[in-house]
Amino acid sequence: MRTSFLLLSLLLCLSMTAKTNKNRTSGNPILPEFHADPEVMYSSQTGRFYIYSTTDGAPGWGGYYFTVFSSADLTDWRHDGIMLDLGTNQVPWATGNAWAPCIIERKTADGWKYYFYYSGHYPKDDRKAIGVAVADSPTGPFIDHGEPIVTDAERPREARGGQAIDVDVFQDPVSGKFYLYWGNGFMAGAELGDDMTSLKKETITHLTPHGGSLQDYAYREAPYVFYRNGLYYFLWSVDDTGSPNYHVAYGTATSPLGPIEVAKDPIVLIQDPDAGIYGPAHNSVLQIPGRDEWYIVYHRINAAYMQRDKGPGFHRQVCIDRMFFNPDGTIQRVKPTTTGVSPLKGRIR
Question: How far are the Cα atoms of 158, 172, 282, 284 from residue 235, in angstroms, in the given order?
């Protein structure tokens, strides 16, 4: 009798475990504590996914180091440590405000290289600037270039306001060339030099989408670029990062330096007050290699910090949801969730 009971209990436990695994999701947020401005990357070298972000929760956006998390399936994220610290002599030109990074993997004759772009406070100008650090592994160690590669001097003549922050890096699959995008208050883009640590300054282009309002697509910051089926998609954030209305809009172009045509229905992702979701924006986008399968990784405000005196702008958390396209190539509006995504299925090629 006792043996039968134990066997029945074991079978019931296995059944519940199988059901739980079958229905398992990442949940949102996907990272612990406070993080923002997430950059997601798949590494062909390691076969893992990585997220780099602004370390949030410090008053006045005062974080000074970057961490990296990795996952094999987009649901279970492992903390892989601090990979660049502006509070040490790792970055001699910057004194904190470690914000909004991006990264790209490149296979060279010397092996795999990772170019990590980010913004920090540049005392020489008393402004924000963009630097780059290089490593042979997605988790480092990263060696800083030693000086910023984008300052206010690289601002397009037509651009007004804002600073050199919110950097994005993109490789054009058509030409193989690499591009950098940046700007708060304006959007700028330029081709990177062959060394990946300099700009071809003659290519610097003013890309800010014109018009719009805070209800739809008025550009604020956080450009992000990807390519699909002959089109270059430009995503950006609207309104203030501490506003519940902070959201993602988009347009498309036929070249990596525009001009950008704003979509007829430009909103990609926006708040859902009924679900307690506010300020979902400053995103990156992930395509699963070899598939037309897409995800959007973004931050949103922790609902417990929505009151202005609690600092909603620096109490943000990283989330992930699926992103889909209509047959004509337009982006379907993403529904932000608390469940997140299911584990990735199948082998990546």
Answer: 20, 16, 9, 9
Catalytic residue among 39, 154, 168, 221: 221
Strands 168-171 and 78-85: unpaired
* Strands lying side by side in the sheet with 35-42: 35-42, 49-55, 65-71, 78-85
**What is the predicted pLDDT for the residue at 347?**
81
158 given a catalytic annotation: no
Please give the mean pLDDT across all residues of the chain: 93
Which amino acid is it at 345? K
Q: Which of 37, 39, 56, 191 is catalytic?
A: 37
The runs of H, that is alpha helices, within 146-235 are: none
What backbone torsions phi and psi does residue 313 show, to the nearest 5 degrees?
-70, -20
10 Å CB burial of residue 195 (0-12, 13-18, 19+) is exposed
Beta bridge partners of 103: 116
User: What would the pLDDT profile of 157-174 be if each residue is shown by its tens digit?
Assistant: 999 889 999 999 999 999
pTM (2 d.p.): 0.93
Predicted local confidence at residue 160, as pLDDT? 83
Classified as helix, coil or strand, 89 is: coil
Work out whether strand 205-206 and strand 178-182 pair parallel, antiparallel, or are unpaired.
Answer: unpaired
Tell me whether residue 191 is one of the annotated catalytic residues: no
Task: Determine the distance from the C-alpha atom of residue 114 to the mean position of all C-alpha atoms in its chain, rounded to a whole number.
Answer: 16
